[in-house]
Amino acid sequence: MRPATTPPLRKIVIYTYEGGMMLDVVGPADVFATAAQFVAYSERATAPYSVEVVANEAGPITMSNGVQIVAAKSFRDVKGPIDTLLFAGGSEKGLREAEKDPALQPWIKRKSDTVKRLGSVCSGAFFLARVGLLDGHRATTHWVACEQLAADHPKIQVVDDAIYVKSGDTYTSAGVSAGIDLALAMVEEDLGREVAMQVARHLVLFLRRPGGQSQFSAQLAAQSAKTEKFNALLTHIAEHPEDDLSVSALAEQVAMSPRNFARLFRQQVGETPAKYVERARLDAARRRLEEDDDKIEAVAAATGFGTAETLRRTMKRHMATTPEAYRASFGG
């Protein structure tokens, strides 16, 4: 057992509202609470985190799923220094109603000058964006809302395909469960990788996803295809990433012209064939890196990237990591 230490107490404040998404609140809260319990038990030290849930008014808050949670206090009554201030997401209607409180936006601006870290989960990014706190920053939100965030706030560099984004001392995450990944990353910053991984194991998480990982996999996109013809094609792409998956080759499989195929594919799947194929190949490469010990060159060849360098560039662009680093972190 390591010697007893006394890490500083970090106050985590999570703001939510009527119609907020419950997992946006309880996911990060449980990560910080579990980390606090782990340190207190394993290191015989003072718990490093305290967590407060606040809203416009103290008392029960009905979340988007109909379940109530209790806000310990109004945001107006938060006292003392805050280490991390997080804004949960949820329904657009609820968010707009919450913003009608005339004291909320001035409070957000004031606290942004004093907190160590300012962050959001899902559509909570709009709380920060609407007071200008994301201007000049890279930021993300739920993929459904990325286009709106970019249109409404052109000074933000919206990253529409990331689990979470750190830009200076400002943190934003994608939808719902991505708040757990964001909180785990913060725990790792504060207490080290070992504690973060112990928290992930305790919460029975498959792995701590790197921030640059895609918000949604090719398999999830495949579930949205609207025709049996495309369902079969998407299954083929997932099962044979090493094949010729050019637009012309895919169009031939479904007996369509390349132009008509590309148009209909984007309409029904939500992205271009090339982008979908790249995502599917990246999914396949990640699985091999997690499960096998093959050389990077062999992984690249087996998943359609051709060369290790192409795989490295693709992982760097999508996930901000390399095959070697990913395997070191998540390989079996």
Q: Roughly what is the average pLDDT, rounded to an integer? A: 89
- Compute the number of helices: 15
Strand order of the largest sheet: 5-2-1-6-7-11-10
- Please, what is the oligomeric state? single chain
CATH class of the largest domain, anyone? Alpha Beta
What Rg is obtained from the alpha carbons, in whole angstroms?
A: 22 Å
The ordered string of helix (H) and strand (E) elements is EHEEEEEHHEHEHEEEHHHHHHHHHH
The CATH architecture designation of the largest domain is 3-Layer(aba) Sandwich
Percent range for β-strand residues = 5-15%
What percentage of residues falls in helices of 4 or more residues? 40-55%
Globally, the shape reads globular
Total domain units: 2
Full CATH superfamily name of the largest domain: Class I glutamine amidotransferase (GATase) domain
For the largest beta-sheet, the strand count, sense and barrel status come to: 7 strands, mixed
Distance between the termini: 26 Å
Runs in which pLDDT lies below 50 for 5 or more consecutive residues are none
